[in-house]
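Our working data are protein records whose layout never changes between entries. The record below serves as our worked example for the rest of this section:
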Amino acid sequence: MNATFHRIWNSDLVWSWRHSPVAIIATVMTLLLFIGALGSTWLAPFDPFDLASINLMDALKPPAWSEDGEMPYFLGTDSQGRDLFSALLYGTRTSLLIGLASVLLAMLVGIVLGLIAGYAGGRLDAFIMRVADVQLSFPAILIALLIDGVARAVFPLSMHETIAFPVLIGAIALAGWPQYARTVRGSTLVEKNREYVQAAKVIGVSAPRIMFSHVLPNVLGPVLILATVHLATAIITEATLSFLGVGVPPTSPSLGTLIRIGNDFLFSGEWWITIFPGLMLVLLVLSVNLLGDWLRDALNPKLN
């Protein structure tokens, strides 16, 4: 056990992490935000979405260190009397879950299509890549808005709140799969000419098994790096959609929804309602981005 730990601790990746202050700070910040968000049910002092515990008399209270602030509400309250610190933890959890789910779905679609395009080649490869090229020519937020708008037009009004999460996850994922497909296709074009793939073909291994059992493990490195960076983009996209009012329902607000709600009070003196959600979003995206940038540089052989 000690030998395994010693080997991992002295590996090139961990050595690079230990000697990068930015990577250490980004890792600590990411872990704290993840723990706070995923453990919001136990860590939040109040349940901001429990109507029975909300008192309108506590609305618009400033942070506790202000002159009119009260200690139970460390970061103040919003216009409905909800504790802002608790709302931030719950909102970060919503943003993170949507971001993680959309990244996983985009990875799944992109990896499968990238493997097929790179391994099969020919017209199928050309068709998949042209679709990816056309989609990449449009901003991700525009594609997500289009998909969300189509879904809201197709489904009745009574189902909008029910389908909000699946539609939002699907919209962000469909906007991000081309990056994974292009990355996997490029690596597959190299791997399919290797000796182990040729040997598998000779002994009669089927094409799907070669792709997913032999080629896929050797192309996952760049995909994992891309997923780390894409998580920050997915969180920003979700926050933008929620800020525009087409994201998650008001009953389960995310950071984007909290920023939109606080924006109405920004110029009336209640600055904390929008500033703190904005800072939380910046910290979350910045820490994930910095971690992804370090991981990309650490795994790039040209920089080592």
Observations:
- Residues 84-303 form a domain with the MetI-like fold fold (CATH 1.10.3720.10).
- The chain has one domain: 84-303.
- The mean pLDDT is 86.
- The first helix runs from residue 2 to 9.
